[in-house]
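Escalation from tier 1.

The customer reports that the assembly of two entities below gives different structure tokens on two consecutive runs. Tier 1 could not reproduce it. I'm attaching the input and our single run for tier 2 to review.
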Amino acid sequence: GENVEQHPSTLSVQEGDSAVIKCTYSDSASNYFPWYKQELGKRPQLIIDIRSNVGEKKDQRIAVTLNKTAKHFSLHITETQPEDSAVYFCAASRRGGSNYKLTFGKGTLLTVNP
Amino acid sequence: NAGVMQNPRHLVRRRGQEARLRCSPMKGHSHVYWYRQLPEEGLKFMVYLQKENIIDESGMPKERFSAEFPKEGPSILRIQQVVRGDSAAYFCASSPFLRTGNNQPQHFGDGTRLSIL
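Tier 1 run:
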């Protein structure tokens, strides 16, 4: 089955700096890669996703890049703010049939210091 | 459009009792997923259901756990004879179905925090 590795497990940055979180996946058939933000005691919230036919996707201060050959994808947050502090999870899944289930990384605790 | 609704938010059970967790998907969503999250860990897939069908239960323990998504009403995750190791947050997510078959974003509920005494 799919295995998703996520690094780093913790990341501390100063407000205004950029933050980068990296994930690798093992299943070359995976083609959908969402990122979720989870604040303490809250639900995971989808912040951005990318499909395998696209190399990069941007939404304001958030961007995701995908390298299918190397089987890794990254989340980039620019101009970080204290409210970006949370745990971020990457995930991967295949397309179709029973394959829609998400396999998650173990998460990155991002702390943005004011 | 109401989001994914889960209840109860918190559930306390004694060892050996049954726990019943409910999930109502977003309006128009026909796919439901259950995930389990242990403290300071990621989410682990348990089961994927469509109306009246279990599509994939590969992540759900074979014993004591069952899930359903009836034609009418919410999806139910049922844990019989609970043990301490069942203590976790259980999240439900839902997504719509599109004929293209492409993955659709999964939207999560607030979860049920299950504590076993």
